[in-house]
Amino acid sequence: MVESFVGTWKMLQSENFDDYMKAIGVGFATRQVGNRTKPNLILSVDEQGIICMKSQSAFKSTEIKFQLNEPFDETTADDRKTKTVVTLDNGKLVQKQTWDGKETSIEREISDGKLIAKCIIGDVVAVRTYVKEA
């Protein structure tokens, strides 16, 4: 159920994110900022079932709106232009991005009341943990 993801999530910790950014082709200066940034993740769903996912930080805010299983064009926080599709798979919100012959996926799941986001490209996995704001 997408509803379990709805809310404002505050980043608690981030592991291996620099290696992940390197693997997707993010430059050094942007990685330095990306490693210091702890964005909030805000997820909402409207009456038509359109999901809005915002990432907000002092550095940069991004927003995507989508429906499950429907491909869309996304411009990522690091300015990649991707074809993206988000599916709900065994309780995980799986965001697959493809660009320039590359593919990455971000698997988000709720575990012990926390939102765990696994960013995966090839054999590189970054794990970002969020807690829900009251």
From TrEMBL:
What molecular function terms (GO) are annotated for this protein? Answer: retinal binding; retinol binding
Q: Which InterPro entries match?
A: Calycin (IPR012674), Fatty_acid-bd (IPR000463), ILBP (IPR031259), Lipocln_cytosolic_FA-bd_dom (IPR000566)
Keywords attached to this Swiss-Prot or TrEMBL record, sorted alphabetically, are:
Retinol-binding, Transport, Vitamin A
Do the record's keywords include Transport? yes
Organism domain of life: Eukaryota
Q: Which residues form the Cytosolic fatty-acid binding proteins domain?
A: 7-24
Tell me which stretches of the chain form a coiled coil.
Answer: none
Q: What does this protein do?
A: Cytosolic CRABPs may regulate the access of retinoic acid to the nuclear retinoic acid receptors.
PANTHER family for the chain: FATTY ACID BINDING PROTEIN
What family classification does the UniProt entry report for this protein?
Belongs to the calycin superfamily. Fatty-acid binding protein (FABP) family.
- What is the name of this protein? Cellular retinoic acid-binding protein 1
Q: What is the organism field in this record?
A: Solea senegalensis
Q: Please name the taxonomic classification of the source.
A: Eukaryota, Metazoa, Chordata, Craniata, Vertebrata
